[in-house]
Design a protein that fits this description.
about 55% helix, two-stranded antiparallel ribbon, 12 helices, 7 strands, mainly alpha, 3-stranded antiparallel beta sheet
Length: about 240
């Protein structure tokens, strides 16, 4: 498969590059969210027992695909709604079944193309509410603490039992790895999956900076990313 390049010379899937351009969130930040949420596995699913109990009134133990299948046999719609899906682990109750015309259709679409479905779900979530818009704005400015508090439900309060500090630290580390082109991700083509490392590569006629930006260098990363996007748009329109 061939992949688009981000502004720092890293390989990316076309859906991810499109997501970055549409939302204004730097591609390395999107890759970092993906890595923290799913470890780069587009087929990742997590069934939430508590959510299913609250929505369907029945208890199914476990968090894996087998637990989801048991819940699906009881209540297909609420099983899909009570599961987080794909690269970005968006919960199904954010309109997943409605996107595809029902729970069975949603699951079939996910199994057929988990990368595209995961990106579409994340894009839908990012425009779903005022809070989601705040999270998108936080991701744009690389404010991982605020993003985490909205997206992950952690707390920014000192001494919280579910603090954002852990998620924020993991996000920052994954972001810096994405800038270096050092993230491992699962790529899926039909029934075949392979694990690759997103090393920086030459971007043809495009801008390939191949730099590591740490800490206070985030502003430079954002500038480089936007400059590359402008060049790419000019090439596509010429």
């Amino acid at each position: 498969m061939s992949y688009a390049m981000n502004g720092l010379g890293q390989a990316a899937t076309n859906p991810e590059a499109s997501l970055a351009e549409e939302t204004g969130v730097p591609l390395p930040a999107i890759q970092a969210i993906r890595q923290v949420e799913s470890g780069g596995n587009p087929r990742a699913v997590r069934f939430e027992t508590r959510v299913f109990r609250n929505r369907a009134g029945q208890t199914v133990e476990g968090h894996d695909r087998a637990a989801f299948q048991r819940a699906y046999a009881i209540n297909p719609l609420e099983a899909v709604n009570s599961t987080s899906w794909g690269w970005f682990q968006v919960m199904g109750f954010h309109g997943f079944p409605e996107m595809y015309g029902g729970p069975a259709e949603a699951v079939r679409a996910f199994d057929a193309d988990p990368e595209a479905v995961g990106v579409r779900l994340f894009k839908r979530w990012m425009s779903s509410s005022g809070r989601a818009e705040q999270a998108k704005a936080a991701a744009r400015r690389l404010d991982f603490a605020t993003f985490a508090s909205i997206y992950n439900g952690c707390s920014l309060a000192p001494g919280a039992t579910h603090p954002c500090s852990t998620y924020q630290t993991r996000m920052r580390a994954a972001y810096e790895r994405a800038l270096r082109g050092d993230l491992t991700v699962r790529r899926v083509a039909g029934e075949v999956a392979e694990t690759i490392t997103e090393h920086p590569v030459a971007a043809g006629a495009g801008l390939a900076l191949g730099v590591t930006v740490l800490g206070g260098g985030a502003a430079f990363a954002w500038w480089a990313y936007k400059r590359s996007m402008k060049r790419n748009r000019r090439r596509r329109s010429s």
